[in-house]
Amino acid sequence: MAGHKHKDGIDDISWFDNLLLEVKKVAEPIFKENKDDFLKNMLETLSKDSSECVLMNPKAPSKSIETSCHHRKRGNILFKMNRLDQALEEYTKSVAYAPSGSEECALAFANRSAVLFKCQLMSDCISDIKNALCANYPDNLKAKLYHRKMCCLKALNPRDPLINKTLAKARSLVSKMDQDKQKAMMDVLDHETRNLRYPREKINCHNWNFEDTVPAFDANNPVVPGFCDAIEMKYSPQYGRHMVATRDIKPGELLGLQKPYTRVVADHMRYKLCWHCSKQTWSSIPCNTCGEVVFCSAVCRDEAHKKYHYIECWLMTALLAYDGHTDIMERFIFPLRLTIMAYKEAGNSMKVLKKNLETVDAEKDPMKKGLVNGKFDPSKFSSIYCMESTPRSDDFDIILFTILHSLIGGFLFCIKTGLHSTEENVPIKLNTLMNDNYKFIIEFIYKNMWLITYNSSVVQLPNGSHDIAIDVGSLMTPGAFFNHSCAPMITHGNFGEYFTTVSICPIKKGEQIFESYGPILQDESKVERQDLLKTYNFTCDCNACKYNLEPLFLDDIQSMVTPKELSTIMKKVERWMVRVDQVTEELTSYVKSNNRKMDLSKDIKQVIKYVEQAWSMFPQKNAFPVLEAVNKLQILLTMLQTPILCLD
Asked: How far, in Å, CA of 96 to CA of 62, rounded?
């Protein structure tokens, strides 16, 4: 990728490469000598460094008619090829990048409405038509758009009084059309008028804007709001803060229902899910300033802007200006969000933010650290800040790029918040920036990056396949207090605004409750599991790893039960393998056809009985029927979430 030149002759590639080399030169010997105070010592050295190590305030790309038009034309090609899902995403990008209220914005909304109309998403189609008409939509195209709106109204309710008004509006605009198209349009409208005399029944339109029903739940935990009192937090030097059962817990019990402190949509889903609530949206609206995200409604857009996007918006576009150098956008947006929200909670005051963090750091009792009025308040940053964030990696390359993310992110944060002032595309020496506020923000972002690495939970929304795709990352108060095991006891889910925690096996009173951070016992060998867990830089010592357990298959378990019991349980294994595969394959088509989620309550009740039977039958919990039963319950619980739907 060729860099472009700045006014002093430095190009954007060379300054970044120079930054990488200079920081590495300073940081590596300090890291090798003393890892504990490494960051502070490195920043102190950089502040005295007189090398040509520079940062650049990029010219952040804004909304662009050219970019919007590019995506709209790509959408047109894909629409003609009947690749509707890709066409919708391209039109959504066109909507996002178009300047607000522009003709290009109106054209993007109108073209996307054609996709929605073809897919019979009539309510969403009407929303896009309204947005197109509210923008600067060309008069010579309006008759066709009003005709489309009339068809939507007729499909939704053949007796809607707005149908005649909309048809009349379309007629009044025919004269604005190009002359060679007027007669054809009038013929279409005359045909519609005749058909209105014989109204048809309402057709089966689609509406996939589901509102998740939040289950009834008694969140009575005295320390962790949003969780029940069947669990409590304890501390030990070996396990740190961890969760323990206060009573026997059955499989399928809802243990937690909590709004996460924040959640971030994965990069590949940015134009499919609402940036704020993570709901899939078909007639999304853009941010008023940037072209990088979309929202399901003005309510979500305004809430996001109020809480974090007022700073994040510019930072995202600025980070994208560095594209080609690092994957900074994908890795950095979550810790950046934390930094902004903590700053917002401190009243946009650096002084107050420092004081807030010092208060948390001053508490040495691990059972009290981060508490607000005796509780882990899920809406307060202190409850998040107290989580594990000490870098545990010995890989200097990982450390180096984490530092670079923090240096660049801190620099941009300081510019946006007025702590630094510099011209666009003008290199500025790093040592001239190293005041106390900049050092503090670098350290804070660096800490948040590790905090996210060790504590965030990810959710895969069902998509009708077995492919693993992380769609939403969430951070909530007790999530980090469930330690890892290769044989997990709980699973998490995403239901509207809430994050759920559900048991997937029997848990005895006094047992520590584990979840899985990665591969599980039946999927990978111990060596492979340990290798994949190196991301967290720890060696798993769960029972499966400690005792080198592997799944026990048919030959291993025959002696544990009678032939009749074995035959009965193996029939259930086979039955639920088939049933879960069937649900996985049929889920999205069922939802699309019926405009509602599949009712899996009977299946889940039966699988819970299957789990309990297998659990009591085999003393070794690595027996294949036990592992299969727990796995099938976990999959079915995942299927309760609103699935990601495709148009094709």
From this structure: 11
pLDDT in the model for residue 1: 32
- Clarify whether residues 436 and 559 are in a common domain: no
Strands 483-484 and 514-515: parallel
Looking at residue 496, its pLDDT comes to 81
Does any domain span residue 515?
no
Same domain, 308 and 439: yes
pLDDT at 519: 84
> How many beta carbons lie within 10 A of that of residue 298, not counting itself?
9
Cβ atoms 170, 143 nearer than 8 A: yes
Burial 243-279 (b: 16+ CB within 10 A, else e): bebeeebebbbbbbbbbbbbbbbbeebbbbbbbbbbb
Q: Is residue 560 domain-shared with residue 446, that is, in the same domain?
A: no
Residue whose entry in the numeric block shows the structure tokens 């803060």: 241
- Reported pTM: 0.91
Q: Which of 457, 482, 505 represents a domain boundary (last residue)?
A: 457
User: At 98, which CATH number?
Assistant: 1.25.40.10
Phi and psi angles of residue 446, each rounded to the nearest 5 degrees, phi first: -60, -45
* C-alpha 194: how far from chain center: 49
Confirm whether 414 is domain-assigned: yes
If you write DSSP's letter for every residue of 362-383 in order, what string do you get?
H---TTTTT-BTTB--TTSHHH
What is the rounded CA–CA span in Å between residue 115 and residue 211?
23
CA 147 – CA 166 distance, rounded (Å): 7
How high is the pLDDT of residue 465?
52
181: domain range? 65-195
Cβ atoms within 10 A of the Cβ of 565, count? 13
Token pair 């940062």 in the structure block, residue:
55
Dist. CA 136–CA 319, nearest whole Å? 31
The residues, ordered by sequence, that sit 6+ positions from 440 with a Cβ below 8 Å of its Cβ are 350, 354
Of 400, 424, 457, the residue at which a domain comes to its end is 457
C-alpha distances out from residue 438 to 16, 143, 431, 443, 451, Å: 19, 56, 11, 9, 20
Residue 361 lies in a domain: yes
pLDDT of amino acid 163: 94
Q: How far from 308 is each of 237, 275, 381, 596, CA to CA, in Å? A: 36, 11, 13, 33
CA distance 300 to 263: 13
In a domain, 492, yes or no: no
How far, CA to CA in Å, does 469 sit from each of 224, 445, 610? 29, 26, 28
The CB density around residue 65, as the number of other CB atoms within 10 Å, is 14
Which residues sit opposite 473 in a β-bridge?
A: 264, 458
Query: Residue 223: which residues within 8 A CB-CB, separation 6 or more?
Result: 232, 233, 371, 374, 375, 376
Amino acid at 476: M
pLDDT score recorded for residue 431: 87
Query: Which spans in 173-261 are helix H?
Result: 179-195
Residues of the chain with pLDDT under 50: 1-12, 324-326, 466-468
Which helix (H) or strand (E) is 436 found in, with range? helix 436-455
- pLDDT for the residue numbered 178: 92
For the chain, how many helices (H) and strands (E)? 22, 14
Overall number of domains in the chain: 3
